[in-house]
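ok so I'm stuck.
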Amino acid sequence: MQATAYTYDPATRSGQVLLDDGTPVPFDAAAFDAGGLRLLRPGQRVRIETEGPVDAPRVTLVTLHTF
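replied:
not stuck anymore, here's the structure
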């Protein structure tokens, strides 16, 4: 699934992404670390993987979107 980086705190390696419908979804350090990223800038397109219910997904991976 694709999203847009919304917030990112390098101290905690956590933040939020915006789904394409504008819904903010938080991610934690484990999801950030799973993607192997070193930095994330607001506005970057990212690929995320989620688990859990559709109305309350939990992000398990954040990585850069590639074509």
